[in-house]
Design goal:
This protein has about 325 residues and is α/β, with parallel strands linked by helices. The protein contains ten helices and 14 strands. Helix 1 (about 15-30) packs across helix 9 (about 235-250) and helix 4 (about 125-135) packs across helix 10 (about 295-315). The chain starts with 7 loop residues before the first strand and ends with a helix.
Length: about 325
């Protein structure tokens, strides 16, 4: 008798982000099986017990257990949340050396189990570590995805919605580029409903261009403020990871701003960077190349160059 097809997600790293992701994933009932792996066995086992105790309240009876890398063999998705955390005042890019070494060990262990699914990377600096995962795994580029600027885009839509007093789901706007200090807002395609934000501001004198610029600054620097206040960011990114997971497991063909590999799109090659992409069961189906204005093109090029400079010494670029 053929084995029933189930969706298995493996989470590597059950710190604040990994455990928040597992909790959000169970609450949305997206996966059939959820495996938690962590160097600190007791912490991960405690999370498994805690999550299972809430299963009676969940929309779907997800089978959750503490596992090891062998469980990756039958996994559809491996989500990497492990690594050193960003400290107060530390940039995401300053984490590179520590986390590339950690990732080499993790990815090698996953691939040794004959994993043949999709990697989703959440650890910072996410664009660099997604590139590293792709290199270390040998998987096709479309099956290695970073969380990219999905959270920055969500922050952007929330703050714009708050400013214009509309639901953030009706704000259509993207943050692209590095998930970090060189990211950029695509103002040329930002809309409230179908009305360009620039027109919205021109119509009503209560809205100010300089206030829009401050909104972007608040988006870009949000992580620093949250880390200063509570030590880490995890709820927002956990929900963003669940959104990507749903797009993959449910074959949605959803457009999300993830870290994707570029092969000439936006004039860039051989770099993982945050861009809108169509996500489905196969991973990244297609990178959407939206038309940027000249200022945005230059900002994006700068962002890509910063990432390439960081990558170069590690991957002989």
């Amino acid at each position: 008798m053929a084995k029933e097809r189930v969706n298995r997600v493996v989470v590597i790293g059950t710190g604040s982000v990994g455990s928040s992701y597992a909790f959000a994933l169970m609450n949305q009932g997206i996966a059939d099986e959820l495996v938690l792996i962590d160097l600190y066995k007791d912490k991960a086992m405690g999370d498994v017990m805690d999550l299972n105790h809430g299963k009676v309240f969940a929309p779907h009876p997800t089978n959750i257990w503490y596992g090891d890398y062998e469980d990756c063999r039958d996994a559809d998705l491996v989500v990497i949340c492990a690594g050193a955390n960003q400290k107060p005042g530390e940039t995401r890019l300053e984490l590179v050396d520590k986390n590339i070494k950690i990732f080499k060990s993790i990815v090698d262990s996953v691939m040794k189990a004959q994993f043949d699914g999709i990697f989703l990377v959440a650890t910072n600096p996410v664009d660099i570590l997604t590139y590293a995962t792709w290199k270390f795994s040998g998987l096709p580029k479309e099956r290695v995805i970073g969380s990219g600027t999905i959270l920055d885009t969500a922050r952007f839509r929330f703050l714009l919605g708050d400013y214009f007093k509309v639901a953030p789901t009706n704000v259509h706007a993207y943050i692209i580029g590095e998930h970090g200090d060189t990211e950029l807002p695509v103002w040329s395609h930002a809309e409230i409903g179908s009305i360009p934000v620039e027109q919205y501001v021109e119509r009503d004198e209560t809205y100010k261009k300089e206030e829009l610029n401050q909104i972007f600054t608040n988006v870009r620097d949000a992580a620093y403020h949250i880390i200063e206040k509570k030590g880490a960011t995890y709820y927002g990114i956990a929900m963003g990871l669940v959104r990507i997971t749903r797009a993959i497991l449910h074959n949605e063909n959803a457009i999300l701003t993830v870290s994707a590999y570029l092969e000439g799109e936006y004039g860039e090659k051989d770099v993982y960077i945050g861009v809108p992409a169509i996500i489905n069961r196969g991973g990244i189906r297609e990178v959407l190349e939206i038309e940027l204005n000249e200022e945005e093109k230059q900002q994006f090029k700068h962002s890509a160059n910063v990432l390439k400079e960081i990558l170069a010494p590690h991957f002989n670029m």
